[in-house]
Design a protein that fits this description.
20 strands; FAD/NAD(P)-binding domain; six-stranded mixed beta sheet; alpha+beta; binds flavin-adenine dinucleotide; eight-stranded mixed beta sheet; 379 residues; 10 helices
Length: 379
C-alpha cells in the first residue's frame, strides 16, 4: 500500500508533470491543476545534464527526451573571438548508458511530460487554481477556481519561484531575489559543423550555443544587469545584439540574425532556498517553489525532476507520511543547497571579473568541474 492514496499537484511545469507521472506509476491517484488556460511554454531550449537524464530514466522518459532533442558530449570552451581553449568531456557517471547532456526545446520537453503524465492516468485541468484549502491532520480539503472541491491525502505545490502556497505556509520568510545578472536567449538554425555544446567567454559576458535537434540550436548570453526588470517589446533584438558586441567569429555572425523581437526570451536571474522542511502537515512544496537557482550549472529543472522522482519512490513505498517526508528532506535539502550555493558563487565571481575586480580566490573552472562531477552521485 502506498503512503498516500490521492494527491493534488498544483502547477503543470516541468516538476509538477514529472511528479504526476512518478506518483501514478506507484498507483497513487493524481489530480494536477495548472493556472494557465493553455500550455504556455516559451520556445527556446533547456539543457538536460546526465543526472537530469538519470531521473527521467527512472520514470521511463529519458529515451523520449533523447528522441525529441539532441544529445551532446560536453562544452567546447572558446575565447570571444572563437578560438578553442579546451574541450573537456561532460561527466556521465550518473547514468553511463545515457549521454552526458541532451538539449531539447522547452515545448518538445513539455509534450513529452504531458504525454508522460496523461498516459498513466493523471487527471490534468488547465485554467484552474486552488482557491482555498484546509488541512485537518487526516486530509486536506481543497476548493478550486472552477467551483469543484475534493479531499486529498497530500497537496504538493509545484508552482515555481512565485508560489502562492509557499507564502501561505511560510509568509514572507522566503522570496526569490535578483542576483545582478540576466539571460537572453534566441533560436538559430544549427550549423552543420556543430558537434557539441559551445561556450564563449567575453570580457564582460558569457555566450553559450546549445544543440536542440539536427537542424536547430539556441544561444544564451549571460549579462550583468542593473535591476530585475523583464526586457520585452520591440527593442529587445537591439538590446540583445548590443550585448553581443565584442564577439567575433560564429557569435558575431549569429548576432546579425537576431531580428525577431518575439523570439528573444529574456529572464532576470533569481535565487532562493527554503532551508527548512518544505512541508507543514499534509502540504508540501517542491521544485523552484523552494529552490530557485541561477542556471550556471543547468540544474534548476534537474533538481525539480529529482524531487519528483524521489517523491514517487517514497510515497509509493511503505510507512507513514511523516517518515516519507522526513526521508525526502534528508535526501534533498543538502543536494539542492549545494546547487543553489555553487551557482550563486559562480555568478558572483563572474560579476566581479566583469567589473574588473581581481579576486585571487575566484576559481570558476575548478568549481564548475567539481560541482558537475559531484552531482553525478546518487541522492
Ligand atoms: C535563463 C534560465 C535558464 C535555465 N536553464 C535550465 C537548464 O538548462 N536546465 C535546467 O535543468 N534548468 C534550467 N533552468 C531552470 C528551470 O527552468 C526551472 O528550474 C524549472 O522550470 C522549475 O520547474 P518547476 O516545475 O518547479 O516550476 P515552473 O517551471 O516555474 O512551473 C510552475 C508551473 O506552475 C504554474 N502555477 C503557478 N502558480 C499556480 C497556481 N496558483 N495554480 C496552478 N498553477 C500554478 C505555472 O503556470 C507553471 O506552469 C533555467 C532557468 C532560467 C531562468
Amino acid at each position: 500500500m502506498p503512503v498516500v492514496s490521492r494527491v493534488l499537484v498544483i502547477g503543470g511545469g516541468i516538476g509538477g508533470l514529472v511528479a504526476a507521472r512518478a506518483l501514478r506509476l506507484r498507483g497513487i491517484a493524481v489530480d494536477l491543476v495548472e493556472k494557465e488556460p493553455q500550455w504556455t511554454v516559451y520556445g527556446v531550449g533547456i539543457i538536460q545534464p546526465n543526472n537530469f537524464l538519470r531521473a527521467m530514466d527512472r520514470v521511463g522518459l529519458a529515451q523520449d527526451c533523447l528522441d525529441n532533442g539532441s544529445a551532446f558530449n560536453g562544452w567546447r570552451v572558446h575565447d570571444a573571438q572563437g578560438n578553442v581553449l579546451f574541450d573537456p568531456p561532460g561527466p556521465r557517471d550518473a547514468a553511463p548508458h545515457l549521454p552526458a547532456n541532451n538539449g531539447i526545446t522547452r515545448p518538445r520537453l513539455h509534450d513529452v511530460l504531458i504525454r508522460g503524465a496523461t498516459d498513466v492516468g493523471a487527471d490534468i485541468r488547465l485554467g484552474t487554481t486552488v482557491t482555498a484549502w484546509k488541512d485537518d491532520g487526516a486530509g486536506v480539503d481543497v476548493t478550486f477556481s472552477d467551483g469543484s472541491a475534493r479531499r486529498y491525502d497530500l497537496v504538493i505545490g509545484y508552482e515555481g519561484a512565485f508560489s502562492p502556497t509557499r507564502r501561505q505556509l511560510f509568509g514572507d520568510d522566503y522570496a526569490p531575489h535578483f542576483n545582478g545578472q540576466g539571460c537572453w536567449r534566441y533560436n538559430f538554425p544549427r550549423p552543420a559543423e556543430m558537434d557539441t555544446g559551445m561556450v564563449f567567454f567575453g570580457p564582460d559576458t558569457k555566450v553559450g550555443l546549445v544543440p536542440l535537434s539536427p537542424t536547430l540550436m539556441y544561444m544564451f548570453i549571460v549579462t550583468a544587469e542593473k535591476d530585475g526588470t523583464w526586457h520585452e517589446g520591440p527593442t529587445v533584438t537591439e538590446e540583445m545584439r548590443n550585448r553581443l558586441k565584442g564577439y567575433g567569429g560564429l557569435v558575431a555572425r549569429l548576432r546579425d540574425q537576431i531580428t525577431d523581437p518575439a523570439a528573444v526570451v529574456y529572464r532576470p536571474m533569481l535565487t532562493m532556498l527554503v532551508d527548512k522542511p518544505w512541508h507543514k502537515g499534509r502540504v508540501l512544496l517542491a521544485g523552484d517553489a523552494v529552490h530557485t537557482t541561477t542556471p550556471h550549472l543547468a540544474q534548476g529543472a534537474a533538481m525539480a525532476v529529482e524531487d519528483a522522482v524521489l517523491l514517487g519512490e517514497l510515497l509509493g513505498g511503505d510507512g507513514t507520511l511523516e517518515a516519507a517526508l522526513g526521508e525526502f528532506m534528508r535526501r534533498r535539502l543538502d543536494r539542492v543547497r549545494y546547487v543553489v550555493e555553487c551557482s550563486a558563487q559562480l555568478a558572483a565571481w563572474e560579476l566581479e571579473q566583469w567589473s574588473g575586480v581581481r579576486n585571487p580566490d575566484a576559481d570558476q573552472g575548478g568549481l564548475l568541474h567539481r560541482a558537475t562531477h559531484a552531482l553525478m552521485a546518487d541522492y
